[in-house]
Amino acid sequence: MKGIKRIILLLVLFLIGIIFVIAKDQDVGIEQVVVEGNYKTDDLAYFADNRLPVYKGNQYGYIDRKGELVIKPNYSLGLPFNEGIAAVRKNRSGNWGYIDVNGEIVVPLEYDNYGNRFLDGVLLRKNDVFHYYNLKNQKVEKEFVGYEDMMVVDEHLIAVKVDHQWGIMDYDEAVIIPTIYEEVGVFNEGMVPVKLNGSWGFVNETGEAIIDFEYDTVSSFNNKGAVVSQNGQYGIIDKAGDYIAPLEYDHIGYFNEDIARVYDGELYYLDEEGNSLNMEREYSRLDDFFEGFASVTQEGQYGYINRSGDRVIPNIYKEAYPFADGLAVVRDLEDKLKIINPENKVLLELNEAYYYSGYSEGVFTFVTVEDRELSLLVVVDKDDTTIAPYTRSPYFLHKEHRTFQ
After folding, report:
1. C-alpha neighbours within 13 Å on the C-beta side of residue 157
2. What is the pLDDT of residues 161-217, one digit of tens each?
3. Which residues contact 325 (CB under 8 A, 6 or more apart)?
4. CB atoms near residue 273 (< 10 Å)
5. One Pfam family from the UniProt entry (predicted)?
6. Which domains does the chain have, with CATH numbers?
7. φ and ψ at 8, to 5 degrees?
8. Is the dihedral of CA 41, 42, 43, 44 positive or negative?
9. CA 361 to CA 50: how far, in whole Å?
10. What are phi and psi of 4, to 5 degrees?
11. What is the number of other CB atoms lying within 10 angstroms of the CB of residue 127?
12. CA pair distance 136, 116, nearest whole angstrom
């Protein structure tokens, strides 16, 4: 043995299709699960609580990571689970409610929307009344009357709309921020973006204006900085409203892992201090950072760079998706999908033609090319798999097309 990094133990169990790979000083098990039943899944669907929403025809149900149907398709729409419950819709005209992981109804299917998680329950709308449904005792604990709209903006605060204006209150309907704003965002880092007289600024949890109302668009704060724009130019401000990066960029993306993509005639990255990564600026497309790596495109081919801007995997792929749990899906120039590690070692190659659908809770999902039916699950057998999902919803900045998503 010359070190575990050079050893790959390949054990194929034909009855259950499990492949074990040893890499990076730890055992990584990979199980291929063929999904029967001709189900489809939405682009933004993902595994949570070992349940993935799938549909056949116009009816939604749920499968588990073994590919087995665990909740029958009885709903016109089913959303991913969140902390043990999932929003489902009885029919196309409405009638939302919630089920648990066993398919038991925990919130009656009688609401106009699926609402928001709030405190120990869910905040939902029924006709013109908002109900706080407590999941612990499974009953409506409070009704909110006289509001045009409501949404949860913090774990204990609700944004409310009265006479076309937004404000923020708590569960007891005590006013935190008066209803004088055209729009509100969600709290982060103790501040919430609000729009007044056509411009955005920030207020704190007492309603005090912290950053003046002078921006066309703003993001929520992410640790140190928030992205703002004015007259088509983008910059980054800190919590005092001072500029980390001046208003001089054509576009700045949202921060992910404390790094944002920018465009000012060239594509590159900025950190939250406003410093640019030391990197080549010849890429035609940049993706967000995940687990310290970002896929980048050069001359139509994909590779990866690290947070120092170094190219760690060459641009040899037709497609390259974000890393999750130390693994990434790529498509080579011969159209074969592979799962690689950060050393570009191929841990699994798929022989059939698939589209990559997404990753969450240790499961890669793949659909067929022709009809986009859910066909294959690749299950990662390791501790502490990523819960936050990656779906095919794109996040990139493209140089030629000035496209930001």
Report:
1. 23
2. 999 999 999 999 999 999 999 999 999 989 999 999 999 999 998 999 999 999 999
3. 291, 362, 380, 382, 385, 386
4. 12
5. WG_beta_rep
6. 21-145 (2.40.128), 278-351+383-404 (2.40.10.480)
7. -125, 115
8. negative
9. 7
10. -65, -25
11. 7
12. 16
Q: Decide if 91 contacts 76 (C-beta within 8 A).
A: yes
Total-model pTM: 0.84
- Say if residues 230 and 215 touch (Cβ distance below 8 Å): yes
Residue 356 near residue 366 (C-beta atoms within 8 A): yes
Six token digits for residue 287: 């993706």
- Please state, in angstroms and rounded to a whole number, the distance separating the CA atoms of residues 84 and 42: 20
DSSP state, residue 105: E
Token pair for 364: 């890669």
Q: Whose structure tokens read 């955005």?
A: 200
Q: What is the pLDDT of residues 53-67, one digit of tens each?
A: 999 999 999 999 999
Q: How far apart are CA 82 and CA 73, in angstroms?
A: 19
